[in-house]
Inverse folding.
DNA sequence: TTTACTTCCGGGAACGCTTCCGGGAACGCT
DNA sequence: AGCGTTCCCGGAAGCGTTCCCGGAAGTAAA
């Protein structure tokens, strides 16, 4: 039972030709019923598994999807789970590579998967990435590409993403409704699209409420907790400190929260706080942090569906662009008027 | 530039044979210097990439490792990152599949990867899994298998794991040192090895301090926050409630913490709490939760190293078993005597 | 009986690559 | 001049499939 059985073995044992075996196994029409059964029975018995390499060599398909993500934090891990779910259903296997938010790493990963191992890609790009040549190579090879969450600027490919602007708008509007007026925003690096979109939402909300934008309250810092902590410390040290902070990720919200507590300020009274992603941690800390939820699992599923469609319909899926709506979960960190809205979750 | 260039193309263009091209590309000795250079130059120009399927068909190697994990929570994601790191270095690509702690899912994943796509496996088994036939099939095919974190009971394969007993011991001993005497433990399902080992450590510590074991204080519940919350509620409702709780995961610790707060008890004075994994969240909540740290990244790296060794040294790696030591990080949730130990991290 | 059409099956090429084998040319030595 | 070596290179088989094509029966129609 060492060497796996091949189609040839079956042919030899049954004294028929390999082509017949091949056809029988795939239920082709032009093969006798008895032979078909005999072949299937023997295949079963020998535990026959078609050799994927031979198949791939022939039909140049691997039924494998390369997924490249910047990391595997809560949101992305959930999205990947969604991808996995529908990919498996459709007979695809998924290869997940993390780029660790590194441009170089992303190129290496792409290269590796590209060589010949995968049928196509589902990508969320690293925050470091500013040029997309390595991804364009994929398209040159006519492989399907779907991007999700973080989009690629100038490539015409199907995509799923969150309506980040709306998320920023909901968050900021909520703070305004609660009476906060000097609202700061902790955004990510300027190269990061999702960050800019959320910032747009923030600006839109201020405009709607006719609150003047103070450039000093718009901070771009790295996408993590430590930087958010430092940035918040600076914000709170201002002569006219902000009375609320909107961070574009929950990890940053945590950083901000640490700085706020250290300063001895109380949420939501002294200062309001809203995060983004609705990670479980937001409801665990106290006070709970309001946060914009995104349907991550659903988003992953859609990404995979788009991929499979593009794979099958050879027609150019042009620029299909699915946009999902976020939903704000309000918790203690920003809820001044308890009468106003019921606490969710 | 649509069809990728093959060795044949090069041969034809240079008017030499494919075998010569093949040899030239791999720097074989018996090929003229000039031809060699010519071939290499042309290959470069055509952006030639050897077809992996053809290679695999031939030499039955894919340079791909199948990694099966129960989920992608903080610890496992970190471990996978470690695996990725050294695998990439060694020229291997990694395929990650999550079993979602489901036995059935694990079988499907194994099956899929097994078919022919991977050279071997690095596995952390699902908590649901009690029989290991699907893994034994892998060995039957003479593929290398390395297990990590959660071991497979009766299979002789190289493994890396944490010294879970020591972790349980450190945690419990610490609580005892702090003067707690009625210490409860929230363990996982009885089928979960790591849970039992940590429980062993707990028992060992009690024995060492000559504290009698109270079976009512040993709770087996599901490995997540909600169940831990419920279990803790019950514990706290006892006539003689415990004065400390050791949970075998941080997520469970969070659940416990919620129940404790709800009951109006204060940590560390009314009750002590120690978790396991040292997830970032432990230092974010307040009070910070003491937790047993495991070198997850390192553990992942070792797993991959073991795999590659097994792959190369054909000699049976017998039963290599690497065991890593955990380290307790003490935070506010369990630190009564501030004089005793300095707070770490 | 011939013709034509099904039904079922085998032969062989092809996918892209490696590797074994063998042969020709050039060279040096006797 | 003859022989053995060394250096390069081409031919061909083989990895496990699929698929096209053609052929041998059998059956129905002319």
């Amino acid at each position: 039972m060492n060497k796996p059985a091949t189609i040839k073995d079956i042919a030899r044992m049954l004294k028929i030709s390999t082509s017949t075996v091949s056809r029988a196994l795939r239920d082709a029409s032009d093969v006798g019923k008895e032979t078909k059964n005999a072949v299937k029975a023997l295949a079963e018995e020998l535990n026959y598994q078609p050799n994927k390499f031979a198949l791939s060599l022939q039909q140049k398909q691997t039924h494998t999807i390369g997924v490249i993500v910047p990391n595997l934090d809560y949101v992305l891990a959930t999205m990947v789970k969604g991808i996995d779910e529908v990919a498996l259903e459709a007979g695809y296997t998924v290869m997940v590579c993390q780029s660790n938010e590194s441009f170089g790493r992303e190129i290496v990963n792409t290269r590796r998967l590209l060589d010949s191992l995968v049928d196509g890609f589902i990508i969320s790009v690293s925050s470091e990435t500013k040029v997309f040549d390595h991804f364009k190579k994929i398209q040159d090879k006519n492989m399907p590409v779907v991007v999700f969450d973080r989009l690629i600027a100038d490539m015409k490919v199907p995509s799923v993403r969150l309506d980040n602007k709306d998320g920023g708008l909901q968050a900021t509007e909520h703070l305004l409704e609660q009476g906060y007026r000097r609202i700061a925003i902790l955004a990510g690096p300027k190269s990061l699209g999702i960050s800019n979109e959320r910032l747009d939402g923030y600006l839109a909300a201020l405009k709607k409420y006719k609150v003047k934008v103070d450039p000093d309250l718009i901070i771009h810092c790295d996408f993590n907790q430590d930087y958010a902590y430092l940035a918040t410390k600076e914000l709170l040290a201002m002569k006219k400190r902000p009375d609320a902070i909107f961070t574009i990720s929950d990890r940053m919200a945590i950083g901000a929260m640490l700085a706020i507590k250290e300063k001895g300020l109380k949420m939501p009274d002294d200062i309001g706080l809203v995060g983004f992603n609705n990670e479980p941690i937001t409801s665990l800390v106290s006070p709970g942090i309001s946060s914009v939820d995104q349907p991550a699992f659903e988003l992953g599923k859609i990404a995979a569906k788009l991929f499979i469609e593009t794979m099958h319909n050879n027609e150019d899926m042009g620029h299909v662009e699915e946009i999902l709506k976020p939903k704000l979960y309000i918790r203690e960190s920003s809820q001044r008027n308890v009468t106003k809205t019921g606490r969710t979750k």
Notes: Chain A has twelve helices and twelve strands. Residues 16-20, 23, 29-32, 35, 54, 56-60 of chain A lie near DNA strand C (CB under 10 Å from a C1'). The longest helix of chain A spans residues 296-312. Residues 339-345 of chain A have pLDDT under 50 and may be disordered.
